[in-house]
ATP-binding cassette domain-containing protein (Umezawaea endophytica), 315 residues
Amino acid sequence: MRSTPTHPEVVVAGLRKRYGTTLALDGMSFTVRPGLVTGFIGPNGAGKSTTMRVVLGLDAVDEGTALVGGTPYRDLRNPLSHVGSLLDASAPHPARSARDHLLWLAHSQGLGASRVDQVVERVGLTSAARRKAGGYSLGMRQRLGIAAALLGDPPIILLDEPFNGMDPEGIIWMRGFLRSLAEQGRAVLVSSHLMSEVQDTADHLVVVGRGKVVADAGVADLIAAASGNRVAVRTAARPEAMALLSHAGATVAASGRDTVTVSGLTADHVVTLLNRGAIPFSEVFAHRATLEEAYLELTRDAVEFRATSPEEVSR
Ligand SMILES: Nc1ncnc2c1ncn2[C@@H]1O[C@H](COP(=O)(O)OP(=O)(O)OP(=O)(O)O)[C@@H](O)[C@H]1O
């Protein structure tokens, strides 16, 4: 049976950390709550791995606190039964099998072989568990790392880029697996630099850029915020429609093959203007952003190199 601490949460508050001239963490603050998969997402170098290392007591900070179940990680008496983590899925000794690796870890925690067999089965490695880990694919090493994280049956799980190296079948498995961990009441933090990896899995998103949080919200709220009050127009006369609406004071952008997204005007106003200008259109509808768009918008200033879209026109 799992012993759950009273507050199986991770609370990160005001973390600041500098590596030489690089400010890796610049006031990073958020909470990871039980029963939810929290996606920890941001471009490369945003500070995700550093934050996880700080939470796990592997890196010191210049300022701020990171608490696990109300306690700094280093003060936990039996840490692996509180927090399971996957930071770097480098293989264990290549000549050692997954099972032997896990047995060694389990013994260090006073756990027996039956727990090893349970976690091996849970991550779908049973048929490969007695093979040498040196021959494992990256996806199999990720599963082995997750099995190790689960050994102590912790209520908090931190996984850094667990989708790395997984094939499509592995990704589908991983999504369902993360959901099941949250449904068991665990607090699950999963980092990724790709929104597509976490969008069907996460309940909550902490979006980071340049060492700090740029959005901390439920998935639906993020989409609503990114959608704004924009209107989309489908038209065969896109250049004319863009010129007319832009002239009327709207901010317009081309999207898809034949669509213009418009902000600054109501749908009624857009229809009136298009009719008045005799510009044909097949549809005018409320624009709904995708999570990917929301993410790109939020992290726009945090990405060092990004190609600009030649289609974008603003007033
Ligand atoms: N040990 C280190 N020494 C020097 N700089 C570091 C070190 N670790 C991280 N950094 C720098 O700190 C910043 C944050 O890095 P971090 O690895 O935490 O980002 P990340 O969001 O996990 O990125 P990625 O998705 O690429 O893993 C980066 O600019 C990185 O180069």
Notes: The radius of gyration is 24 Å. The domain at 10-217 is CATH 3.40.50.300 (Rossmann fold). Residues 1-5, 304-315 have pLDDT under 50 and may be disordered. The chain has two domains: 10-217, 225-313.
